[in-house]
Amino acid sequence: MVTSTQEESEKVDHRPTLHDVARAADVSIMTASRALNGQARVSAETRERVLSEAARLGYRPSFSARALRARESQLLGFRAPNLMLPVHVEIIQGARDYASQEGYRLLLEVDPDESASGDTFTTDGDLVMGEPPAFLRPSLARCVSLMGRPSAYDIDACGTNLAEATLDALHHLADKGYRRIGLLHHALISPAFSPSQRLIDSGCDQDPELIQVVSNDKSSVLEGLSRLMSLDPRPDAIAVVHVVGTPHVLRELHRHHFVIGRDIGFVGTEVSSSEWGDLIAPRMTAIQVPARQVGAEGAARLIARLRGDRSPARQITIPTMLIERESTPGPWR
Amino acid sequence: MVTSTQEESEKVDHRPTLHDVARAADVSIMTASRALNGQARVSAETRERVLSEAARLGYRPSFSARALRARESQLLGFRAPNLMLPVHVEIIQGARDYASQEGYRLLLEVDPDESASGDTFTTDGDLVMGEPPAFLRPSLARCVSLMGRPSAYDIDACGTNLAEATLDALHHLADKGYRRIGLLHHALISPAFSPSQRLIDSGCDQDPELIQVVSNDKSSVLEGLSRLMSLDPRPDAIAVVHVVGTPHVLRELHRHHFVIGRDIGFVGTEVSSSEWGDLIAPRMTAIQVPARQVGAEGAARLIARLRGDRSPARQITIPTMLIERESTPGPWR
DNA sequence: CTGTTAGCGCCTTCAT
DNA sequence: ATGAAGGCGCTAACAG
Question: Where are the domains of chain B?
Answer without folding.
Answer: 4-61, 72-160+293-318, 162-290
